[in-house]
Design brief:
This protein is of the alpha+beta class. The protein is built from 21 helices and 12 strands. The strands form 4 sheets. Strands 1-2-8-5-3 form a 5-stranded mixed beta sheet. It has a 3-stranded antiparallel beta sheet with strand order 4-12-9. Strands 6-7 form a two-stranded antiparallel sheet. Its cofactor is heme.
Length: 519
Amino acid sequence: MALLGASGLLLPSAAILLAIYTAYLAIYRLFLSPLAKIPGPRWAALTYWYECYYDLFLPAQYVFKIKQLHDQYGPIVRITPDEVSIADPDFFDTIYAPGPGHKRDKDPEKSKALGFSTSIGATVGHDLHRKRREPLNPFFSHRSIARLAPKLHDKIQQLEENLARAAAAGDVVNLSDLYYAFANDIVNEYCFGHSQNLLADPPLAHVQRKNVDSVLRGVKFNLHFSWIRDLIHRFPPALSARFTPPAIRDMIRFRTGIRRDIDRVLNHAPPPTDKEAHPSTTDTTQQSVFTSLRDSPSLPDSEKSPQRLEDEATLLVMAGTQSTQLSLTIAHYHLLANPQLMARLRAELATTTTATPLSTLEKLPYLTATMQEAHRLGFGVTGRNPRVAPDENITYTDPQTNQVYVLPPGTSTSTSTFLVHANADLFPDPFAFDPDRWLGPAGVARRRYQLAFSRGPHICIGMHLANAEMAVALAAMARWDLRLFETGAEDVAMRHDYHILMPRLDSEGVRVRVLGRAG
């Protein structure tokens, strides 16, 4: 009986303790926290469910809500109990690229969202990130990427062969799928020495592109409920298949393919023969990225584990495919939707041929301005990607009120490319596609606000590869006469933030009819 009495008191006691803890937490967050005086809605300061509502139930709209909060409260806003957003383009470098002597870690909770915890993109600590990135830097330097020009032109030939077949057959072509295949083939061959040769199989490219979209739509769920994903991964495969959401199943399939490639590298096995292999002009003696990491004397064995290399490869392939595909698709859509822009680009390209060196293309003003504008409206990583200063205060002065705010060490501080790239003071009529904004002295000065690749220690490692792919692809594709087919601005405009830009969720991509070569 005494035991029953004690157990009968346990539940009420637990409820009382929970109520006391909840009340204390609310009081602390609203009144006692070092962030209590930061402007913002009370619900955002009180609970993460405010962010969760805009992330999961609307869905993926918090980036737009944050802009509304800045319009209401000013340039500094508390957007979660422990995160502060600063919508001041000139403060970006203080948060992300403060210079030597200043450390910036990633927010450990936000880094869980993608699930590649040991990749350089998700590495939290400043020093560990630098250690992991250093062996990769030489592969992605401008000089190294320039040596890829023969492979780029080989893939452009395949790209154009798809257009020629479609023109002959009168078929509709999905440019989003072709650009996905193009970017995926390039990054896989660079990373592993082989690819799936997706340009030979556009329907497979379509399936994979849609699968990656599904994976990315799981990012917000993983951010708020990463423990569910981790729990499912602990189940036996036969059991987990019954409970795993489709997006996580897609990710498992994707990572299984990456793991096979990593196993081949670690076991010194030759790469498989590309399906319907296309004649290649690449120097086959050049080491792939991951064979080089495997053989690197500067990396300890712990940094060469299958899991570590799988995380790195998964992020490199996903980011190197999806972001490049998006920028190319955005650029090409707007060129087709605005014939006067295409005419200017073709006029500039009139003195070039398909054999024009990459180094020459990179110097063409209107081509590079078109690329810059596509990057701007692609927004790079659309998520906030906050930083933490582990050992110093971050001090911000509101230019409107002169109020000084001191954010103590450990505070999660962020802005987003959306807040900068959609800033009408920097980019008048910000959602219009206007390459002219990047030309002339004003355009050169504006480049400091081009943040699609971020800046500082975490600047996108694939920036030079992406720009090289865009230059050769746009120069070649501008020579074809295409007409948009059942495609509108909603198919390329940012409507959701799933870590990268996502247009309307039922979009099929940018589709065209191919009339033949232009002119």
